[in-house]
Write a structure and sequence with these properties.
The protein is built from 4 helices and 14 strands. It is of the alpha+beta class. Strands 1, 2, 3, 4, 5, 6, 9 and 10 form an 8-stranded antiparallel beta sheet that branches. A two-stranded antiparallel sheet has the order 7-8. It starts with a strand and ends in a 14-residue tail after the last strand. The relative contact order is 0.22. InterPro entries: Flavin_Rdtase-like_dom, Flavoredoxin, Split_barrel_FMN-bd. Its cofactor is FMN.
Amino acid sequence: MNKPVLLAHAGRLINHGPTVLVSAAHGGRRNVMAAAWSMPVEFDPPRIAVVIDKKTFTRELIAASGQFAISVPCHAVRDATYTMGSVSGRDLATSGSPDKFDTYGIGHFAGPVLGLPLVQGCVAWMECRLIPEPHTEDAYDTCFAEVVSAQADSRVFDHGRWSFRDDNTNLHTLHHLGGGQFVLPARTVQGQVLAPR
């Protein structure tokens, strides 16, 4: 069901504030973590911002590789999403355990442009190149990146629009409220331009 998304519409994949899974790989190591704060910041070229704590293993891999991927999880993968945000990839690595993908059986596939691990079972995916910000890298957790590929599950995102309906609730995106509690969008509604009086 994965369908390429026009890069001009890539920002729409996260403009409604979903929890995202951030994955990165470098030097034979890889990791995935959950992030609650992400947003589009530019249209052309498409650029996003995502908050990734400087102390995380994922951020270390991003700094080393200059790239990362975003997977937008849905109701069907809520437990995996909560786990990815609750378990440290660095702790797994130092204990000799496999990475989160192998330890928890998280399916993934290679992104079409950068080959980064994209999480299966999600409803949207983006591969991103980090935009270096030398004066802020040590001070802030926010990462800025340019989207170089985007795709989405056409059952819930097609022609540049989300479609959250009663018959596809398992595909609705997750919005983290804290402590492992998520809320789902109820449904999409279409607004109309008011007629002048």
